[in-house]
Amino acid sequence: MRTIGDLEVSPLGLGCMGMSWLYTPSGRDDQASIKVIDRAIDLGITLFDTADVYGPFTNEELLGKAIRRRRDEVVISSKCGAIEVEPGTVIRNGRPEYIKQACNAALSRLGVEVIDIYQLHRLDPDVPLLETWGAFAELQSEGKVKAIGLSEVSLDQLQACNEQHHVDVVQSELSLWTRDHLDTVLAWGGENDVAFMAYSPLGRGFLTGAYKQATFEAGDFRASNPRFTEEAAAHNQAIVDSVTSIADWLECTPGQVALAWVLATGPHVVAIPGTRAMNHLIENVGALSVNLSATDMSALNNLPAPMGARY
Ligand SMILES: NC(=O)c1ccc[n+]([C@@H]2O[C@H](COP(=O)([O-])OP(=O)(O)OC[C@H]3O[C@@H](n4cnc5c(N)ncnc54)[C@H](OP(=O)(O)O)[C@@H]3O)[C@@H](O)[C@H]2O)c1
Q1: What domains are defined for the chain?
Q2: Is 23 one of the catalytic residues?
Q3: Are strands 115-120 and 145-151 parallel, antiparallel or unpaired?
Q4: Is the CB–ligand 1 distance for residue 168 below 6 Å?
């Protein structure tokens, strides 16, 4: 188990975004997703990540419904501050009064009395960050949320917030092909009791090797993502090939190696891979049994850089 604030969580969580948003343009299957969430709890996963913008709104409702009878077994992580005004257009709102209102709405959608981990999804350039962060601190002292955090912040921004009020967790992208925060936010967090929640730890699926020939339907976020263009995907396949050869040696899958690497970056790091598929969930949980040697880590730390910006 690992720690976020005063909460104990499983090292691997479950990211619920793709069950309702970005990867589901042709429709959701909430019944199947509820079964995946329920099975994840059976398998020992206690951390479930969502946000109000996922859907929008329907992902929090889905998670709330899925955990209703098992509330005591799970830690709910949610986020606010990003608003989808029309499909594909997301704006930001960090005004304190908005954050308070968003939290009340999230509590009601999730059907819970307290949100275990509440994070600012994106910084609003029009609102001083410390004003936004003050609202999170107030929500915490009011008992509406337990741990509080930030997503996609720089080290300077993290330090400034932490000086005003302790930051329990930073949720940012971390995977074998996205290492931007490794030597900054993640390293500093390890020394200052700030957990790191690694999102898209499977490189939005690419690092599992499943997308070698993939084309994504219109509306899937990856259809227009720079790392998934035909040229970039062909270039980035070299990363997956190297990960696959390590996985073959360890008799596991490339996705499991990708997750084990994320968890090996620090004892304060948790990973929240997303899946809608039961077999993928079971495979991903298997990453907890993968032990990477110093030689494996060295090879994984020296993979080629990816082609294409991450957004
Ligand atoms: N804070 C932020 O700004 C932010 C941004 C993005 C994501 N997140 C959070 O992080 C979570 C995870 O990120 P993510 O979903 O973007 O990316 P990810 O976990 O790296 O990858 C998810 C994709 O990989 C596929 N996949 C998962 N396991 C697989 C397996 N074993 N074999 C083959 N394919 C597999 C999934 O498809 P299937 O459904 O078919 O398995 C899905 O399309 C999200 O759910 C969300 O909670 C946060």
Answers
A1: 2-205+263-290 (3.20.20.100)
A2: no
A3: parallel
A4: no
